[in-house]
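QA checklist item 7 of 12: single-chain prediction sanity check.
[x] sequence parsed
[x] length recorded as 264
[x] structure emitted
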Amino acid sequence: MNSGRIKAIVMRHLYLYKGRSLPRFMDIFFWPVMTLLTWGFFSVYLGKLNLGNINIISVLLGAVVFWEIVQMSQQAVSVYFLEDVWEKNFLNIFVTPLTLGEFFAATAILAIIKIIITAAVLLTVAYFSYHYSIFTLGFAVIPYALNLFIFGMVIAIFINAIILRFGTSAQVLAFGVILILQPLSAVFYPVTALPSFIQPISRILPTTYVFEAMRATLAGGVFDTTSFLLALGLNIFYFIVVCFFFSTMFKIVKRKGILLKVQN
């Protein structure tokens, strides 16, 4: 894996922000902040209802911030992939010595940069608006966030493989799949709140174990090792599967000579 080629892809996408594109900056700052404020106001309202010892603000705002990690990592990787398709640059990239591993390593770095900036903004707004800090979770923030980032990458690679095989007609998946997974991931409520026939589906998602563990940590202050390991194990398994799936789709596209059609 060549670090120079990875850096080139990273810099190519970072330079796009120098053009002061409003949609790109809204994607990092405006929409995540609006989501946080909406749930923040709702959390404050619920907190005033005196629902016992449950810290509604910590539970809901923690869920919002953590879900942004999943969503940002998925959409960042998918959109960076799509930008090369939209700008008809996809073929140019892969006639170079760049490997698939280097390409996705670069998009992962870009996603991390985007997440760090957005998380910093969200945590600042949450602290000054609602006196909330996600660091009340302590060390657990790091392993929980890592699992969510990996799963976002998994979904992105899967979606990119579909787009690679079927072209831009499938690009809607980059913006819709993650919304389907949110209610199944028990982000704002326990798995037991779901209908019984949906619960088995929820339990095969790594995100479910992260959000269940987050609520357990907030309630008892103890890091849920079992949930973390289950989430990590599922993530590793899914990551291997989607990497193989993308590699297979890439070989099919090259063999059939339809790589050029991907960007049409």
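[x] summary fact logged: The chain has one domain: 3-263.
[ ] second reviewer sign-off
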